[in-house]
Amino acid sequence: MYHPSPNLLQCLYSPQRIAAVVDVLAEDGISASRVLGGANLRSSDLRDSAVRVSYQQVETVFRNAMRLSQDPAIAFRAGERMHVMAYGMYGYAMLSSPTRAEVIDFAAKYGRILGTVADIGFSRKDDTASYLLDPLLSRDPADDVYRFALEFAFATYQTLSRDVYGGSFRFSKLSAAYAAPPHAETYDRIFQCPVEFDQRKNVLEFDAAWIDHPAVCPDETTKVMAGRMYDQLLDHVEQDDGLAADIRRRLVEHPGRFPSIEAMAATLSIHPRTLRRRLQLQQRTYRQIVSEVRMQLAVGYLRNTQMTNDEIAARLDYSDAANFRHAFVRWTGKSPSDFRNGGASRVAARAQDSLADVPN
After folding, report:
1. Predicted pLDDT of residue 226
2. Residue 186: exposed, middle, or buried by beta-carbon count in 10 A (0-12, 13-18, 19+)?
3. Where are the beta strands (DSSP E) in the chain?
4. Helices 272-281 & 286-304, crossing angle to 10 degrees?
5. Which of helix, strand or coil describes residue 25?
6. 133 touches 204 (CB < 8 A)
7. Are 243 and 274 in contact (CB under 8 A)?
8. At CA 337, angle to CA 258 and CA 340, rounded to 5?
9. What's the pLDDT at 360?
10. CB-based contact 53:11 (threshold 8 Å)
11. Mean pLDDT, consecutive 10-residue segments, the chain of 360 residues?
């Protein structure tokens, strides 16, 4: 796997990695101002969705953490905070992927856009699947920030894998290109698999059968995080206090799943006829609500990601990009590409009116 070195000075990435380190050190009584020293950031910047940081700022914070913390597992603790929804719409897209193989392809394709601290490659041979990690902050295995970044990445990918595959997921082997650190026993506790140091490459291996398992339903933690996505996407939609709002939230909290009205009725423990009748009292239909959620997710993807129409279509459960494009034109009067190129807010506002005409 070869990737050219990134421009370390460009401020292109969201600050979640820095926020994770700051939050973990705060638990140990170390102030944010000390952790952020030299990074030209304030603690308030870490909660601002518009703020972008550079890899150089990430490196500065990582080096500060190594200097300030007495905990050798600090990088692991920070990486464990990087749940899939920390990546915003990209994270939601990962959970919405039709297959687990597509999750891996998606993460590899958009890794640098997400600001990951290591490029990732994927391979599969017989029953073994492997992530190959190539650190971005340093190319020298003897450099402490190289090891710190890898520890952060190893813990991050374990967290992400458990979000996608389920909480029982385990790596079968971890290989690191650097020498065994003084806290090598910590690896055994965190990863519970064989660990080898001084290897040629940084590799996380796991049983390929995980990729072939059916997708798991989101656990409570992921549902809570997806609920926050609901609040961001639909905060300007008329907030019904009843059934329609409950259905919308359930659709968003189960990424990529748009069940039939019969399946939704079963989830709500009511009869489909009762569901239809109660929605009619709110002057709603189930199909209208599904279209509303799909449209808002499409708008979120188009505004906040570089995903292709094919990728968006797959995550909104359309058979192909053409069907997604036709639906988007029906909602907004513009194609997805025109929406991205300008007038997004105006088009999105008009789209809400069109949903009222969606039949059951």
Report:
1. 67
2. middle
3. 118-125, 128-135, 173-175, 195-196, 202-207
4. 70
5. helix
6. yes
7. no
8. 90
9. 44
10. yes
11. 72 92 97 97 92 95 97 96 88 88 88 88 93 94 96 95 89 98 96 97 96 68 66 58 85 90 94 95 92 93 94 94 96 94 55 47
Q: Which of 33, 39, 28, 37 is nearest to 69 (CA)?
A: 28
- Helix H or strand E segment including 287: helix 286-304
**Burial label, 153 (beta-carbon count in 10 A; 0-12, 13-18, 19+):** buried
- Per-residue tokens: 5: 């070195």
Structure tokens, 224:
């809570």
Q: Distance between CA atoms of 32 and 157, rounded to whole angstroms?
A: 25
Phi, psi of 161 (to 5 degrees): -65, -40
Q: How many CB atoms lie within 10 A of CB 200?
A: 7
pTM of the model: 0.85
| Residue 283 neighbours by CB under 8 Å, 6+ apart | none
User: Could you tell me the two tokens for 334?
Assistant: 């513009």
What does the H/E/C string look like for 209-228?
HHHHCCCCCCCHHHHHHHHH
CA distance 151 to 355: 47
Give 29's contacts (C-beta < 8 A, 6+ positions apart).
none
> What distance separates the 2 farthest-apart alpha carbons in the chain?
67
What letter would DSSP give residue 13? B
Segment 22-30 long-range contacts (CB within 8 Å, at least 24 positions apart) = 22/46, 22/61, 23/78, 23/81, 24/74, 24/77, 24/78, 24/81, 25/65, 25/68, 25/69, 25/74, 28/69, 28/70, 28/71, 30/68, 30/69
Q: From residue 11, give the alpha-carbon distance in Å to each of 7, 15, 55, 57, 91.
A: 9, 10, 8, 9, 20
Q: Which domains does the chain have, with CATH numbers?
A: 16-212 (3.90.1520), 220-355 (1.10.10.60)
Going across the sheet that includes 173-175, the strands are: 118-125, 128-135, 202-207, 173-175, 195-196
**pLDDT score, position 216:** 60
